[in-house]
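Our working data are protein records whose layout never changes between entries. Getting from the letters to the tokens is the skill we practise here. To make this concrete, we reproduce a full record directly below:
***
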Amino acid sequence: MVGEWSVGLFDCFGDFGTCCLTFWCPCVTFGRIAEIVDKGSTSCCMNGTLYVCLGTIGFHWLYSCTKRSAMRSQYNLQESPCMDCCVHLCCESCALCQEYKELETRGFNMAKGWEGSNKMVGCVQGMKAPGKQGMCF
């Protein structure tokens, strides 16, 4: 069963802080989203820089739509109101705000990134170091 987004695509102004961040520094918004979606395997800075570089030739939306698709897949969200690439091509800022807010709603601290999120801490807390190992004969 496909789930609903926690906020609509055009609810950008519902969170004025995220709206301003995305308007003035979309690379930061995108970098934070990408780091969480990639589960910390890539950094906010690396993703934001690549976003800016692709933006110089007008293809930042293509990169950001791949993260939207990955996020939808992870959380079983519907592809709405149209295909991911169309959403990012036509409404880049709104799409980034929606994705950012969705991750916040799911408990991520976007300013702290993957390592600062409760999702990562929860995984690590249950792990223990292996006991002393010896040779088996």
Notes: Helices lie at 16-24, 26-37, 44-55, 60-75, 84-90, 92-105, 118-125. Residues 60-75 form the longest helix (16 residues). The mean pLDDT is 86. Residues 52 and 58 are 9 Å apart (CA to CA).
